[in-house]
Amino acid sequence: MSASKRSGCTFNSFCSLYPGLLCLGIQRELAEIQSSPPHGISAQPNGDNLYEWTASILGPEGSPYEGGVFFVFDPAYPFKPPRITFKTRVYHPNVNSQGGICIDLLKDNWSPALTISKVLLSISSLLTDPNPSTALFPCRLRHHYMDDRERYERTAREWTKKYAS
């Protein structure tokens, strides 16, 4: 469900009440990401709904990952972080089975100064350098990453071929 429906207001009514807080900011970010997209990353709203975006991150060189990311903007964005989930199944200690991502900047370290480009670059970096101390997935996966990196990467590549190709 879109953020506008969850909050009980429509996108247009929210924009008319708070044009500087949401609509202009998201439109500015859209223009920025379209004019100067980060390497290997694309993002755009789903149709004309600025609350829901689809993005793709090419698997970083040397990593076994490739897939899509789904954005849902909270009506309070940018004062609250967007909710971001992978649409593609990912074998990664910081991504749960529903695609939820554990990354500090989407939680305690969120700042309204962060842009979608910066968030996507951080997620791309997380694919290259997982943080096992904040693992969302079962302990088994964290141990594969920490104790048997070859097995971890082999399984991650298998999932990438199966789910992201």
Automatic annotation (TrEMBL):
The source's superkingdom equals Eukaryota
**Which InterPro entries does UniProt cross-reference here?**
UBC, UBQ-conjugating_AS, UBQ-conjugating_enzyme/RWD
Identify the Pfam families for this entry: UQ_con
Which terms in the Gene Ontology molecular function aspect does this entry carry? ATP binding; ubiquitin conjugating enzyme activity
**Active-site positions, per UniProt?**
102
The family note in this entry says: Belongs to the ubiquitin-conjugating enzyme family.
Which reactions does this protein catalyse?
S-ubiquitinyl-[E1 ubiquitin-activating enzyme]-L-cysteine + [E2 ubiquitin-conjugating enzyme]-L-cysteine = [E1 ubiquitin-activating enzyme]-L-cysteine + S-ubiquitinyl-[E2 ubiquitin-conjugating enzyme]-L-cysteine
Q: What name goes with this protein?
A: Ubiquitin conjugating enzyme
Organism from which the protein derives: Catenaria anguillulae PL171
**Pathway(s) it belongs to:** Protein modification; protein ubiquitination
Signal peptide, first to last residue: none
Ranges where the UBC core domain occurs: 21-165
Keywords, alphabetical: ATP-binding, Nucleotide-binding, Transferase, Ubl conjugation pathway
